[in-house]
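User:
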Amino acid sequence: MSVVHALLPDGVDDPTRPSGGNVYDRRVCAGLAALGWTVLESAVPGPWPTVDATACSQLADLLATMPTGGVVLVDGIIASAVPHVILPHARRLRLVVLVHLPLTEQATARGRPQGGGVHEREGAALAAATAIVTTSAWTRRRLLDLFPLQPHRIHVAEPGVDGAPTTPASEDGGRLLCVAAVARHKGQHVLVSALATLHGLGWTCAVVGSLEREPEFVESLRRTLDMFDLADRVQLLGARTGAALHDVYAHADLLVLPSYGETYGMVVTEALARGLPVVASDVGGLPDTLGHARDRGRPGILVPPGDSAALSDALHCWLADRELRSRLREAALDRRRTLRPWSSTSATIATVLEAA
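Assistant: Predicted structure:
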């Protein structure tokens, strides 16, 4: 029987901090088990990727307990942060690093400098890996741009999506939905600025995502909503998972994702699985994730990141143009037919682990 040791970041199952990376890790582990793998999970303590000596020591002790020749699937937010911990085990173990978002790219997306040797550490960790799995073709291309890695060592396993009933469209298309942790790099302030110009149109907006990542940003966003008199039209609902998350998708007409950076954007395919069109930033892996209908039409609209005027124009067109709404929804329903299940993701990773 095949065995894989999975090293996951602490908090992977915390319902107050849902994220695409956590969902991906959890679904892949379950999928590998369904394929017959013995998955030995370890949640590694620490606020990854920023950790202290205690977290490093705990990770080192954990790696030391693993048998020589063992296959280890380690989340990149762990491996890329502490190459000095994993390098001593690189020859003894078969390390497969799962990169959701390069740490080098994460610093840029969040508007922070890349200081402290982030690039060097990440490059060292990835160079030592037996294989690398990325969650999108865009991430693979980005890693090859950033580091002198051998292309054949980098594999793509895109997130899957669960099937879901289509959401009936409302008459005016005014039920807007944004699903992302409420944080500056996710761009909810750009969305609010865009919505402030649409007072004369009929819409509401549900913002679903953790309110605990950046409390100061959340408070600033609330003040902005009050300033624009939007507090009754924009609801900050906090994190939602399971049935509660399904419910918000079931009462939406359009997903809006104004992020400054996304390697894939799982919420986009979650929306498309329900036939919901998407307005999103033209950044990172989002254009690939949005994809095209079979007639090559987009099931949504892409706008420049950080451009509230462009986002306002896109939303105005959506709300004011019934024909546009109908066309984008038809494209979304067509794109829905080409989405891949999570079993495909797990099968791809199983193939990489077998080769390792």
